[in-house]
Amino acid sequence: MKMHPNATILLVEDDPNDVFLMKRAMKGATITNPLKVAENGQEAIDYLAGTGKYADRTEYPIPSLIFLDLKLPYKSGFEVLSWIRGQESLDSTLVVVLTSSSEERDIKETYRLGARSFLVKPPTPTMLLELMVSLKDYWMTHNEFTAPEQK
Amino acid sequence: MKTLARATRYYEAILSTTDDFAYIFDTQGRFLYANPRLVKVYGRTLDQVVGKSFDELGYPAWHAEMHMREVEQVVRTKHPIRGEVPFTGDSGIYGVYDYIFQPVLDAQGEVEMIIGTTRDVTGRHQAQAQAEFLAQLTQKLSIVSDAGELNRIATREIGQFLKAHRCYFFNAYPDDDHARTWPDWCREGGSGIEGIYALAQYGAPEWWAAVRTGPVSVDDIQTHALTKDFLDNYKRLKIAAYSLSPFIHEGQWKACISVTSDVPRTWTAEEKTLLENAVARVWPLLERAQMQDTLRKNEEALSRIAAVVESSDDAIVSKSLDGIIMSWNKGAQRIFGYTADEIVGKSILTLIPAELQKEEPIIIERLKRGERIEHYETVRLAKGGRTIDVSLTVSPVKDRNGKIVGASKIARDITEEKRRLEALRESEERFRTMADTAPMLIWESGTDMLYDYFNQTWLDFVGRSLGQELGHGWEEGLHTEDAERYLEMYTSSFKARASFEMEFRLRHRSGEYRWIMVKGTPRFGPKGTFQGYIGACVDITESVQAKQTLSDSRIELERLVSERTASLQEAVNQMEEFSYSVSHDLRAPLRAMQGYASALLEDYPGKVLDSEAEDYLQRIAAAGARMDRLTRDVLVYSRIPRASLQLHAVALDKLVSDIVQQYLHGKNKEAKIAVEMPLLAVTGNESFLAQAISNLVDNAVKFAATDRVAQVRIRTEAREGQVRLWVEDNGIGVKPEHQKRIWGMFERVHPQTKFEGTGIGLAIVRKTVERMNGTVGIESDGTSGSKFWIQLPGMAQENQVTYENASECHHPVGGRRSE
Questions:
Q1: Which of B14, B135, B725, B798 maximizes the CB count within 10 A of its CB?
Q2: What is the pLDDT of residues A136-151, one digit of tens each?
Q3: What's the rounded Cα separation, in Å, for the pair B100 and B98?
């Protein structure tokens, strides 16, 4: 099953500029999936756990794809990853780490914690667009997804 | 008639009183008459005898026959016959008779009758026999000089002759009431009587008084008045009868001969006479022999003593009580130099130095008191006046009566000995002085393992007296933790007679325990005999403390080093943090910058933004991009020294093709990149290599000449175990004067406007290659292109992986060329 066009994508990113650029790139790549944003690690966990306002799953559905930045306030990307790994219900959720750092240690850790991909944020918007196009192509079109469990 | 009658009476008187036998018989050997004596002997009456022949009278056959023959002979020859015949009469006494048969002729001259007379010549016989015996005995004894032999022969002969049970001599000491018997001859063999006997136990005093005057004999001890009280003693010696004959000299009873019988026996006069003669003759011989024996023994003893005296090394001198030298041995000559002739007869004072001459009277006085002076050390004079150290022993000489008549001096030359002792003492002295002044603590122990000496330094150190330390006393100062160890070492070394070395703590007089190092060595005497141990000790507390301090310092140093390393590590970590931050935090704003600039350009083309505004935005974007690139390159560069590097075999073939592929794929510039296969493999790090080669390829294309198509050629060549990778381009080249600079950080030869670049690219190449133990270089004429090369160790061994870590970044591993 392909990723449903309505499957939610969660972007975990604290830098509003990067959020702007991501949205722009995704638009440029015609990725029309609903996009939700968590601004820090704790928010991300809350969203995924469905605590507080995020209990409303119609408003805040479980995402099928998470773009996760590593450098986050409150809880780091690694902590979020770790947490996600512990959640059975999120087993089928794809996590793509999108980050500025190409530090080897981050890469290793990321994969160890179960993210499927590690992508360095390209410096130019053009490159970011290209990236999004490729992603869309890859996941939306070719890859098989299992539908996330709805709580 | 009267005459005849008188004559007959006379004849009868003679015939009846004579001791001789007188008898008449006819020519047939029949008795016509036998005198009373003969008749008595026959034990008959005259009537019984007359008319009987010898046979009929009980003569032994041979005797009778003999007489008959003799009768016939007399009748025939008309001559008398004289003969001697032994007999044993009724009383059992052995005797000898001398007889004559005398014929009596009738008127016709024919033998009418035979008159016989017989005389008992036993005594004479015996006397003769005795005389012969004694003569023989004397002769036998004359050739014997040994007293023992004399005694043996004499007692045997006499005893046998007299058919006694025993025969022996004894010395008599009547005043002392005892007799000493010589070894006896006994018929049964052996001797059992030798010894000393108290006279009183063998007879009453009167008995011995009698012996003193003349021979005595006892026919039966049981009945004899003077011996019967002493029966037991005699019985023990198996004496039933005995006969003694004394030897008396000048009125003194000196000795006795004794013959004994184990059964009662009557001693004849002849036997007694024999004994008398025997003792008279034999005893002097015995005495003389004994004396000669003694004399000889004395002589032998004397000559032995003389030999000892002569051969002695010591001076043996005898002197009279007035100090005149009487005898002088060879030793004395050797020591003093005077010969016997020169000095005998002179005063002993000749030998005594003037100042010591008063010693002599003192010595004499003591001698007179019978004292003996031993090992008296003094000085004497030799011939010529030389002084000699001597040790004197003086003894009094007594005569037979015990009177002191002189002195015997033994002088030993102790000059040599004294010298040796002096040398020894001096040596000892030196040792002691040395030992006491040495800064070392010295001890000695004997073969019994007990300590018998400690030098002053030791005693001062422990603050105790020698008495306290001797034996095993000093061990009280041994630290309890070291005691067992020390004793173990000492004992086992002692047994093996080996030297040992060890450290232990000894209590100083201040109470503090100080570390001592001891070296114990076995001592041997001049002949190699083991004598014990000597130990020399040194206070090594300071040294121990120094060692401790050193150890502490080293630990401290290590700690400091660790700290420093930690700080360094910390700095490195901080660097890492920094670059980490840089990657995240610096680049984010750059992204934003570029993003918004791009967005503006994209969203507002032409209409809102005029060309100048567009230009500004372009420049913003460009600057942002540039900054990003710089940051990235700086990050790369900074990571190079930090990263822990694994070096392994890298197949350049694949790596270079991948890089070239990616390059061509990514860039849209026209460039011809030719890779000359096969490329040799190198030992390096893949990611670093990728970085370096990428940068070189980048440069090769970037710095192209305007008038030609960029052409890049990549190849490898082997160089003595190393591999050189060439990246050659036909670009603008690098002028020789710049060739050194280009490898530096932020170095740009050309203005940025002409060629895009951060100025870090080649620095990164250099740094990465250097970290891989390689070298870099460039060949260029400055116009027709550049030939960049990197050189790395070839593949020395398959699958060898070496490891460098971060802390070594400032200390390059050998083999690398420095900048």
A1: B725
A2: 888 766 665 555 554 4
A3: 7
Q: Which positions of chain B have pLDDT values less than 50?
A: 797-819
B15: three-class secondary structure by DSSP? helix
Quote the minimal CA–CA distance from B594 to chain A in Å: 6
Q: CA of A71: which chain B residue's CA is closest?
A: B584
Chain centroid to CA B764: 85
Closest A-chain CA to B626: A123
Question: What's the confidence (pLDDT) of residue A48?
Answer: 93
Q: Answer yes or no: are the C-beta atoms of B326 and B406 closer than 8 Å.
A: yes
pLDDT tens digits, B123-179: 777 777 788 888 888 888 888 888 888 888 998 998 888 888 889 998 888 888 888
* B598 at interface of A, judged by CB pairs closer than 8 A: yes
* Antiparallel, parallel or unpaired: β A65-68 and A94-99: parallel
Of B588, B602, B624, the CB nearest to A15: B588
- Mutation target to probe the A interface, by most A beta carbons within 10 A, among B575, B583, B642 is B583
CB pairs under 8 A between A and B: 55
Average pLDDT over residues A5-20: 89
Which pairs count as long-range contacts for A20-28, CB under 8 Å and 24+ apart, including other chains? A20/B595, A20/B596, A21/A125, A21/A128, A21/B591, A21/B592, A21/B595, A22/A67, A22/A98, A22/A128, A24/A125, A24/B595, A24/B599, A25/A125, A25/A128, A25/A129, A25/A131, A25/A132, A26/A132, A28/A129, A28/A132, A28/A133
DSSP, collapsed to helix, strand or coil, labels residue B658 as helix
The residue type of B355 is: E
Q: Measured between alpha carbons, how far is B691 from B761 in angstroms, rounded to an integer?
A: 9
B623 close contact with A: CB closer than 8 A: no
DSSP H or E stretch at residue B25: strand B21-26
The pLDDT value given to residue B633: 80
Give the C-alpha separation, B285 to B291, whole Å. 10
Given a cut of 60, is residue A128 above it in pLDDT? yes
Contact: B594, A15; criterion CB under 8 Å: no
B640 in Cβ contact with B649 (< 8 Å):
no
DSSP B193-256: --EEEEGGGTS-HHHHHHHHHS-EEES-TTT-TTTGGGHHHHHHTT-SEEEEEEEEETTEEEEE
Whether the per-residue pLDDT at A87 is higher than 80: the answer is yes
CB contact under 8 A, B594 and A102: no
Q: What gap in Å lies between CA B80 and CA B98, rounded to an integer?
A: 13
Q: Which residues contact B588 (CB under 8 A, 6 or more apart)?
A: A15, A17, A18, A100
Chain A touched by B592 (CB under 8 Å): yes
Please, is B366 exposed, middle or buried when counting C-beta atoms within 10 Å of its C-beta (0-12, 13-18, 19+)? middle
Pair B512, B528: CB distance under 8 Å: no
Enter the ipTM: 0.79
Whether chain B has a CB inside 8 Å of the CB on A138: the answer is no
- Residues from chain A that touch B624, judged by Cβ atoms under 8 A, are 123
Q: What is the pLDDT of residues B331-370, one digit of tens each?
A: 899 999 999 898 999 998 888 888 888 888 888 888 888 8
Question: Are the CB atoms for B352 and B359 separated by under 8 Å?
Answer: yes
**Cβ-based burial of B567 (10 A; exposed 0-12, middle 13-18, buried ≥19):** exposed
Q: Do B677 and B716 touch, CB atoms closer than 8 A?
A: no
Distances B226 to B203, B223, B258 between C-alpha atoms, Å: 6, 9, 17
Query: By CA distance, what is A16's nearest residue in B?
Result: B592
* In chain A, residues 88-127 whose CB comes closer than 8 Å to chain B: 99-103, 121, 123-126
CB of A77 closer than 8 Å to CB of B562: no
Q: Are strands A9-12 and A35-38 parallel, antiparallel or unpaired?
A: parallel
Residue A1 reports pLDDT greater than 80? no
